[in-house]
Design a protein that fits this description.
The protein has 126 residues and is an alpha+beta fold. It folds into two domains: 50 residues, no CATH class; 53 residues, no CATH class. It contains five helices and two strands, in the order αααβααβ. A two-stranded parallel ribbon has the order 1-2. The longest helix has 9 residues.
């Protein structure tokens, strides 16, 4: 997993001591806080790609560190209807890669695929 020490080493700079502030265990909350201008974060490329692509978030130093995580967490829909996406894990990742600004990453190395629980509530009539 990536940490600030690894990032400073990859950047080739001496570490700094951060002021105390909010800390998050949920990466989406951290991302939204960074987008709102409340601080900085270390983010997975796949998590931050859309915000980076549309300018809501910037990577000011261009430093990237490979976390080695290589896990794509997808909707159960990709599991239930995998035949529609090509059946194999590579085909599913290739399908998703076509629509991601950082899609080339999904074609590099071996990725683990996990599925989050589907929220049936989105199908309810309001």
């Amino acid at each position: 997993m990536i940490n600030w020490e690894s990032w400073f080493e990859a950047a080739g700079v001496d570490p700094v001591t951060f002021r105390k502030g909010a800390r998050f265990t949920d990466p989406m909350l951290c991302l939204e806080s960074a987008i709102a201008g409340h601080g900085v974060m270390l983010a997975w490329q796949l998590l931050a790609a859309d915000a980076l692509a549309d300018g809501r978030l910037v990577a000011p130093f261009g430093v990237r560190v490979d976390s080695g995580l290589r896990e794509a967490i997808l909707s159960q829909l990709f599991n239930w209807y995998k035949e529609d996406f090509g059946s194999s894990r590579e085909a599913v990742l290739g399908f998703i890669a076509k629509y991601r600004p950082d899609g080339v990453l999904l074609r590099q190395g071996r990725w683990k695929i996990s599925y989050f629980e589907y929220d049936w509530g989105i199908n309810e009539v309001q």
